[in-house]
Amino acid sequence: MASDTSAAILGTGSYVPERRLTNADLEKTLNTSDEWITTRTGIKERRIAADGEVTSDMCLKAAQLALKDAGLTPEALDLIIIATLTPDQPMPSTGCILQQKLGLGEKGVPGFDLNAACSGYLYALSCAKAHIESGMAKTVLVVGAEALSRIVDYQDRGTCILFGDGAGAAVVGLPREGRPAHRIKSVHLWADGRGGEQLIIPAGGARQPASHASVDERLHYVRVNGREVFRFGVTKMVEMIQRQMAEHDLKAEDIGLIVPHQANIRILDSATERLGLPPELFFTNLEQYGNTSGASVPLALDEAARQGRIPQGKAVLLLGFGAGLTWASALLEW
Ligand code: UT7
To answer: Which phi and psi angles does 46 have, rounded to 5°?
Structure first.
């Protein structure tokens, strides 16, 4: 049972758009194959936001489900944090847009965005934990959401096969009598800006503002150095799991589930093999959704919870890695 002074996840929710983009669809427009994509990534399909559907719309749907799961209404919230690299637009923040969509404009509830790419949800979770445990906030909504289909180059077979859209949310607060609460025991964040070029959207910011040339050169799309990021992902996954296990004196049997960032099945397989952990400890849904960046971990956590994959009282490890370069882990007591 969670103690009264530790922040806990009180409820989770997630949302993915209806539209599916399958490997067979990609075969029609690109020099690729279902066989290549499946064996190299494990991905079979991804979800794509409907025309006009934006990140804040997906945030709202995931947030409403998380609030329902927590038995709370939006009025309980006193802070909103959105982890995204695909905000509705550069300003105002998606946090403010979601705040208004939740009907909290008049109350003045603060909302902001945070960009740590695929580690973003864990960065946001650490902010929520710090706000709650310092007494600065009581109930925080954390959402990881992405409309990656808007920044993916569908002419680049090396990247467009990877990414999809979606959202995952958590309501974070202090445990309440008689309600489930999943204590956030520790969150660790890291970054190494020297690897910034490995995973980048070169234009659209202050360095290369939008121009005819930047559009012609397709600089507003995601660029990935696949092999480097692959190596980085495996190394950091292994390090983070080893560190959390050592810090909390965990053996494999103490872990209920590991919920990693859903980037590539071969990254997960390599890490699993190096660690010698049973593969069934790792939750995956990348086959259906691909890599949804900031949405990946909260979407997977919510699905795992709904599928009854997380045994009560066991440790849950959340792991993220991505652009920055950033990486982050969290240990929950389920
Ligand atoms: O959240 C973090 C975000 N980033 C990532 O997760 C990326 C991590 N990296 C990866 O997932 C993998 O590196 C990729 C899936 C991106 C690429 O797989 P790979 O096994 O590292 O392939 P590669 O880049 O070494 O390319 C091997 C070959 C190349 O052809 P050549 O030069 O050997 O003739 C590519 O042009 O595969 C080719 N290729 C493809 N072929 C068919 C690249 N993409 C495709 C494709 N279909 N979609």
So the answer is: -140, 160
List all residues whose CB is within 6 A of at least one atom of ligand 1: 32, 36-37, 40-41, 118, 157-158, 161-162, 199, 224, 226-227, 229-230, 263-264, 291, 322
Query: What is the spatial distance between Cα 77 and Cα 95, in angstroms, rounded to a whole number?
Result: 13
Catalytically annotated residue among 59, 96, 118, 127: 118
Over the stretch 263-303, which tens digit does the pLDDT of each residue have? 999 999 999 999 999 999 999 999 999 999 999 999 999 99
Question: Which atom, in ligand 1's list, is nearest to the CA of 26?
Answer: 48
Residue type, 262: Q
Distance CA 22, CA 20 (A): 6
The packing angle between helices 265-275 and 226-247, to 10°, is 40
Domains of the chain with bracketed CATH: 8-180 (3.40.47.10), 184-333 (3.40.47.10)
Whole-angstrom distance, CA of residue 55 vs CA of residue 230: 27
8 A C-beta contact, residue 124 and residue 93: no
Q: How far is the CA of 309 from the centre of ligand 1 (A)?
A: 31
